[in-house]
Write a structure and sequence with these properties.
Elements: H1 2-8, E1 16-22, E2 25-28, E3 36-39, H2 43-55, E4 58-62, H3 73-83, E5 86-89, H4 94-113, H5 124-144, E6 150-154, H6 161-167, E7 174-177, H7 185-188, H8 194-201, E8 206-209, H9 212-225, E9 230-232, E10 237-242, E11 245-251, H10 258-265, H11 268-280, E12 285-292, H12 299-312, E13 320-327, H13 334-354, E14 363-367, H14 372-381, E15 384-387, H15 396-404, E16 411-415, H16 421-424, E17 429-431, H17 436-448, H18 451-467, H19 470-482
Parallel strand pairs: 1-4, 1-6, 4-5, 6-7, 7-8, 8-11, 12-13, 12-15, 13-14, 15-16, 16-17
Antiparallel strand pairs: 2-3, 9-10, 10-11
Helix pairs in contact: 1-19, 4-5, 5-6, 10-15, 11-14, 12-13, 12-17
């Protein structure tokens, strides 16, 4: 499918220039040694890295360190030989990082767009910092591009970049993709700078969202808050005009590099690690939770649901083990420090309540980053995955887990508030993460699911994820950006399956 889409997509004249908050590699400085590149983490990097490695181009972003970036030029230039694309750093001061990234991006937009407006800190200085840094990104981008280049700006950190680029006289076509959810009108209107942000977004030529729900929320906000904006179309991509500027709005559900995850999980080293993990667990079913440290991931509620599962379903005692992996993130922010403490306390309480001396420990808690082989071995070994965010734009952990489930004898429990639920709902066991009793019963249902049913469901999910991979996503977005006629633009009929069936698949 991806190859077919690549052949049909209209050709673009120039390079692909990706602009995101961070580069895919973080610069690490060690006293007494030259700076070196360390791979970055996150869903955006996981998705975009294979895209640029596949087609080449330029990636512009912050290198993860404060201060000047002049001494990094040689390091980043040399990296192009191995990466296949160019890295361009945007330097930010510590004050700019505080106001733009930790402030506006993560104390306002992140909680607001995840329907957690009570956690927002609407400090006016954050908006000033956000505008300033977006201008800095625009200036660096304008200095790097050539006529004909397509600029692809990513995520909530850089929603003002197109407006700043237009102010600098840039005429290139500019696309934007939001990796997190877009909130409904009654939540978005709480943002003091709602009008400014909507007008800035309308300076892009194509605005992309993860799901139809997110696109509908955005269109509703436009129709209510911005006068004179109308969009036509009933398919995946809508077209409209703002003054003399044409804008397209669509939903483009992101995928993963399915083949890379599948092949990686099938490597002998990973297979050996997974087999060793299963042996250590003494034939108990392994349940895996894997998340960044973030309050949107619903980890405390998940742990409470697991406790209820052990109470409500005694047959699970000594028969299941939950491995909860938490990847460190934003540990210097008090709210995240408090979250870490609450998770550790919950793990301790549950283990204290159910552990059998000298034997079974119900929860194994891991708080650190994982090497790739270790990550893949956890995916490969787990019979059940608990992916239960309170809200998520897509959630690529769910797709990575399925890609690595080579034996296809596994069960995915997925939050109905994750974007991935639109694609996987007939085959995953859907869960409301706020309903700890319902989630507990779903864990028991997964535990008891027959092998034949597990394989039917997992095989169908893997087929869908393989077909709609990251290259399919990139092709879909590019076709929407360059297509002259949207009337025959492909629909997602094969992506969104019917809800009333579990296919009698192969």
């Amino acid at each position: 499918m991806a190859e077919t889409a690549r052949r049909r997509r209209p050709r673009q004249a120039g390079r692909l220039v990706v602009v995101s908050n961070r580069l895919p590699f973080v610069v690490e400085r060690v006293p007494g040694s030259p700076p070196r590149l360390k791979p970055g983490a996150g869903g955006l990097i996981t998705a975009l890295l294979p895209t640029l490695q596949n087609r080449g181009g330029t990636w512009i972003g912050w290198p993860g360190i404060s201060g000047a970036t002049e001494d990094l030029a040689g390091l980043l230039r040399d990296s192009r030989r191995s990466l296949g694309f160019e890295l361009v750093p945007v330097g930010l001061s510590a004050e700019e990082v505080q106001g733009f990234y930790q402030g506006f991006s993560n104390e306002i937009i992140w909680p607001l767009f995840h329907d957690l407006q009570s956690l927002c800190n609407f400090d006016p200085s954050y908006w000033q910092a956000y505008q300033q840094v977006n201008r800095r990104f625009a200036e660096e981008t304008a200095a790097q591009i050539r006529p004909g280049d397509f600029l692809w700006v990513h995520d909530y950190h850089l929603m003002n970049v197109a407006a700043e680029l237009r102010g600098l006289g840039v005429k290139n076509r500019i696309g934007f993709f939001l990796h997190i959810p877009f909130p409904p009108l009654d939540i978005f209107v709480k943002l003091p700078w709602r009008f400014d942000l909507l007008r800035a977004l309308l300076e892009f030529d194509l605005i992309g969202f993860q799901t139809m729900r997110d696109r509908s929320n955005f269109v509703q906000c436009l129709r209510t808050l911005v006068r004179g904006v109308r969009f036509r179309g009933q398919g995946q991509v809508l077209s409209g005009r703002v003054g003399q500027h044409r804008v397209r709005i669509g939903h483009f559900p992101i995928g993963i590099d399915f083949k890379a995850f599948k092949d990686g999980a099938d490597r002998p080293a990973v297979s050996e690690l997974a087999a060793g993990l299963r042996t250590q667990l003494a034939s108990r079913q392994l349940i895996l939770g894997l998340d960044r440290l973030d309050y949107t991931k619903g980890i405390p509620l998940r742990l409470e649901a697991f406790r209820h599962a052990l109470l409500r379903h005694p047959e699970l005692t000594n028969q299941v083990t939950l491995i909860q992996v938490v990847i460190p993130s934003r540990e210097d922010i008090p709210r995240y420090q408090a979250l870490k403490v609450s998770i550790e306390q919950a793990v301790g309480q549950i283990n204290g309540q159910f552990t059998e001396p000298g034997g079974w420990v119900p929860i194994h808690y891991v708080f650190r980053s994982l090497a790739r082989d270790e990550l893949l071995s956890f995916y490969r070994a787990a019979e059940i995955a608990l992916v239960t965010p309170l809200k998520d734009g897509m959630n690529l952990v769910a797709k990575e887990y399925c890609a690595c489930s080579i034996e296809e004898d596994c069960v995915l429990i997925l939050s109905e508030f994750a974007g991935a639920a639109a694609q996987l709902h007939p085959w995953a066991l859907l869960s409301n993460p706020y309903d700890v009793v319902g989630t507990a019963d779903t864990i028991a249902e997964a535990f008891h699911m027959r092998l034949a049913m597990r394989r039917r469901r997992m095989r169908a999910m893997r087929r869908s994820i393989r077909r709609h991979d990251v290259f399919w996503w990139e092709d879909l977005f590019m076709r929407a950006a360059f297509a002259k006629n949207l009337d025959d633009f492909p629909l997602l009929d094969d992506y969104v399956p019917r809800i009333d069936i579990v296919p009698e698949c192969c």
